[in-house]
Predict the structure of ABC transporter substrate-binding protein.
Amino acid sequence: MKTKFRTGVAVLGALALFATGCGSSDSDGGSADGGGDTIKVGFAQTGSESGWRSANTESMKEAFSEENGFELVFNAADNDPAAQISAVRSFISQGVDAIVIAPIVEDGWDDVLQEAADADIPVILEDRTVTASEDLYESWVGLDFKKEGVMAGEWAAAEFGSEPTKMVVLEGTTGSAPANDRAEGFDEAIAGSSIEKIDSQTGEFTRDGGKTVMEGFLQKYGVDGIDLVYAHNDDMALGAIEAIEAAGGVPGEDIKIVSIDAVKDGMQALVDGKINFIVECNPLLGDLAAELVKDVLAGEEVEKTVYVEDQSFTQEQAAEVIDSRPY
Ligand code: AHR
């Protein structure tokens, strides 16, 4: 398996490439073979659960624009795995030139990916991964979720040192690659530390979900019984902040919070001292996904996995960059 890391510079490079109209294959004829006037692409998005997802959808719609030579058939499945698979089947029956999927969950993709292969429609995965054989898709572009979990866990282990620490976890969508990998990476990083995971439950990557789950934790343990929240995304951390404040606690002080994404609202909460540390998950994957689709349809060899690098932010670092961030 070939693996390639692309930095934010590469992402910017891709943006510039598209801004100057490098997509020559869309203007010289053909369709599924990479020529043709437009390339018809079906994109199966997870839903609209978070600020990250909105930024990702926007990035994909901008990249797969008519201006760039695409006709985009967009579906957001409201985080229902069966509905997402139906959307992919509908793309196959519409005879699109290529399919891009942000898989809600990792399992259950073998049959429909085989159907796409049988119909000779290439599939590109973006954002989340699947457990199906990599022979069933051309390429995947996204983030290293396990590394994100490790970075969050390393911060927590360093922050609390040898102080006994009770932690609760707000998990992402059950069965999704980011929930699985962020849990694994974090647990590995805090192994042997003084942090004890006292509870863990899914908040479905939503602000409401994070708030509801945190309310339950606070009823069970009280503000004084929880030292740390690890939220698998900023939206759930923002929901947890509301729950902590409603319970009379001070988020970021009485209960520290570490989360993942670095979307605008999360970064603002970090600047305000309500979140203590954020690991980035870059949602601007559209241009790289569009480049992969064009390359695959043009018959070019592409990397099987394309990683985009993430950063992390303390309060001071967030204050320095918040105004210049695009999402
Ligand atoms: O798959 C990426 C995750 O999905 C983001 O971290 C989360 O906010 C989103 O819903």
In short: The mean pLDDT is 91. The first helix runs from residue 8 to 19. The pocket of alpha-L-arabinofuranose is lined by residues 49-50, 52-53, 127-128, 178, 205, 233, 235, 260-261, 281 (CB under 6 Å).
